[in-house]
Each structure stands twice: as C-alpha cells, then as structure tokens.
Amino acid sequence: MAGDEGTRASIRLAVVAVFGALIAIGTFFSIPMPQPLYEITWAPAIYLALSAMTDMTTSASAIGVGSFIGEAVNISVKGGSPIYPFGMLWARVPEAFIVGWARNRGRRTLVAAMVLATVFETLAFFLSDWLFYVYGLFQYGSPTTLATGFGYAASDFLTMFDVAFIPIAFGILAAARPAFARLGFK
Known about the structure:
mainly alpha; Arp2/3 complex 21 kDa subunit ARPC3; 2 strands
C-alpha cells in the first residue's frame, strides 16, 4: 500500500467503513422469499468484488460489519430471528478468505473461488438451519426428526442463486480495481 503505516491503516479503515455500509444497505434492501429462506440480498456482488480487490482482513472486516448491521436492521424492521445477524457472520465472512485466496490467481480461478464461496455460504446456512430445526432452537419451532429438519432447511439451497451476482461482481471489479490499485491494493 502507498504511504506509511498510518496512511495504510486509514485507507483500510475507510474501505471497511464505506464497503461495510454498502454491504449493510445491500443486505437490508433485499428480495423477500418464502420462509424459511427469508430473503435474497443484493450484497453478494459487493462483497465478492471487494474480496477480489483488497486484502483478506479488510474485506472480511467490511463483510462482517456490513452483514451484521444490515441483518440487524432487517430483523428490527421486517422481523425475524435474532440469530440471523450471527448467521450472516458465520456464512459470509469466510467467503472473504475463499475469494481473497484466488484474487491474484487468474480469472478462471477467481470465478471458481466465487462459486466455491457461494457453495460455502449455502452449506453454512443449510447446516445450521437444519440443526436449528431438528433441535427447535432460535424460534425454529419444536424439535423434529433429522429428515423433517432437512426438509425444512432444504430451501436454503436456493442461496446458490447468488452465483448470478458473479458477473455483476466482475463488472464492479472492472470499474473499481484501478482505483483500488492506486490505493495500494494489488
């Protein structure tokens, strides 16, 4: 990064603040879905692109802050379980590390990492929801069987539709990567 360590830290903080806010907005303004899926957010294009443009710590911080705040506002306004913001952390923050690993390894590897990150997010939502249904945790109803819980949580597989945001993320990359390079993110 350009400049001294103080300047680098300020740039990272500014990126976390701005992109955390964008991710929060993208999480709040969502497409409602039938329960138990809840919603599809606009945030994936933002956090996938950010993970490909910055270091893993910066992108993970922005994703964590933005996802948590966006989902906390979501449940405050639209309703939902108080566990949702924590689920967003569990499912989204690791995506920064998956995509960040591939950011300088070529376009095909980056696309594959974005798909893998979406698979991870989908499985993170599914596995936790499945267990929450089975054991009746966090407003997920009464305890039930493994098979019934699986059925209830199976709609989480629709999260795979987030792969549709990958081309949008590449559009963001094409537009914003030169500016991020000038800020010192290579």
